[in-house]
Amino acid sequence: MMSFYKKKSVKLLISAAAISSMFTTVSLGADYIEPIIVAPEVVSLPTSNTGWYLRGDIGYSKPKYRGADFPKFTTGSCGSGCVDTNGEGSISGSLKGSFLIGGGIGYQVTDYFRTDLTLDYMTRSKGSLTHCEPSHWNSPNCTSTDGSKFTALSLLANAYVDLANINGITPYIGAGIGGTKVKWSNLAREGGDFPVNGIQGNSDWRFTYALMAGVSYDLTESLKLDAGYRFRRVNGGKMAEAYGNGNGAAHQKAMNIHDIRVGLRYQFAQ
């Protein structure tokens, strides 16, 4: 009889254990949460800003005239064609500012570097010049006030660094190198102590370098408003041909030109 109860007790314990195990499994299954797989976010790369562009500019130029020198010849005891010992003659004075118009074609190499080729024409700048011949025997003050007009056509290859783009505003710096065709009209006497015959002006190409700084603003994705300052250093050259009273050709010193420019740059879509 006792054996019967022992067997019954063992069966009950086994059944209870099986039921407990089943409930534990169900409970664990209810607590299990299937993990959520999050797909990586797709990030679109920004459109490249590289490509060809055209530019057009208008502005104001102020040339700084630094003078010219010319040899003075005399028919003294040394004969015709010798240089007077009193020194060279000179042409001093100043030039007024004038308008500037230009354009060019360029290429945006990267978001921060671009190059372009520009052609700019500075319209006529009126000069108020003082002509002096220290050896002139008829004038104690050796001066004659002359008028002339000056124009400059610059062809420059330029490179720029765009420093940053902040809310569509991009400051930049740049430099250029090339040539400028300088043209002087004939020098005409306007007053002074002695008359000077018409002096034929000269035209020639001169080496030029430039330094620039400015800022552009994105009007659209393709169109930019550009405003900046440019400094041009133009080499010296012949200003006027030889003329009467035994004078030689006038050679002008190097000059500086200060430009303020405003324009548009249109970049073609890739």
* Named CATH topology: Porin
**CATH architecture title:** Beta Barrel
Order of helices and strands: HEEEEEEEEEEEEEEE
Label the structural class.
mainly beta
How much strand content do the residues show? over 45%
The largest beta-sheet arranges its strands as 1-6-7-8-9-11-12-15
Rg from C-alpha positions?
42 Å
Q: Could you report the average pLDDT, rounded to the nearest whole number?
A: 80
The count of strands amounts to 15
Low-pLDDT stretches: 42-46, 77-85
Helix residue percentage = 10-25%
- Number of structural units classed as domains: 1
The helix tally amounts to: 1
Largest sheet: 8 strands, antiparallel, barrel
Assembly level: single chain
Q: Outline, from the CA principal axes?
A: elongated
From the N-terminal CA to the C-terminal CA, the straight-line distance is 99 Å
CATH uppermost class: Mainly Beta
